[in-house]
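[Automated response] Your request has been received and processed.

Submitted sequence:
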Amino acid sequence: MKKLVAEFIGTLWLVLGGCGSAVLAAAYPELGIGFVGVAIAFGLTVLTMVYAIGHISGCHLNPAVSIGLWAGGRFELKDLGPYIVAQVLGGIAGAGILYLIASGKAGFDMGGFAANGYGEHSPGGYGMLAALVSEVVMTFMFLLIILGATHSKAPAGFAGLAIGLGLTLIHLISIPVTNTSVNPARSTSQALFVGDWALDQLWLFWLAPIAGAILAGLVYKYMSPEKD
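Generated structure:
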């Protein structure tokens, strides 16, 4: 239960920090943080939580990460379901807090609410195939970074930096394509509040990250298996 509470809180922080930066701080004329600021914010949420709860739950904060770690032989199948539930609920709680804050401004408009999308709902107008490829590849690379940084032969104590910076880089590349998911819990939390098109397109932001994560887990397990 302590692990699940940690995953709930960590995913809440990821959504509140990452999506919150996009909803609250990115759009100010001249003073807004823009794509770069949002990318850094997402990286910082993961970096800070790795050191805060990594020793408790492993700091997955993402169903795709949990599934990828399972595929790579680093996580037990029996723990997948509870972890995913905790992550999705934490993401929803983070989005709920963000909504309460954002809606406190006069003239509040839900808009995209940092939801993920493709086609007319992609920040750069990218189609479904581009979004699918982007999410699969970005999640694949994210899991390779995680598996490598946390390997028994990796330098101790630096995993948080590699993972946080990796997520920042991923956002710098793919925010224009899909608003960057690589995390089904993060996508679900925002889609539930936006509804309509966001829920219609949510399938891609479960399918693609999970496919990329499983592929990465299998590839890394082949390249560099954990030694007893």
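Summary generated for your ticket: The domain at 2-222 is CATH 1.20.1080.10 (Glycerol uptake facilitator protein). The mean pLDDT is 93.
If you did not submit this request, please reply to this message.
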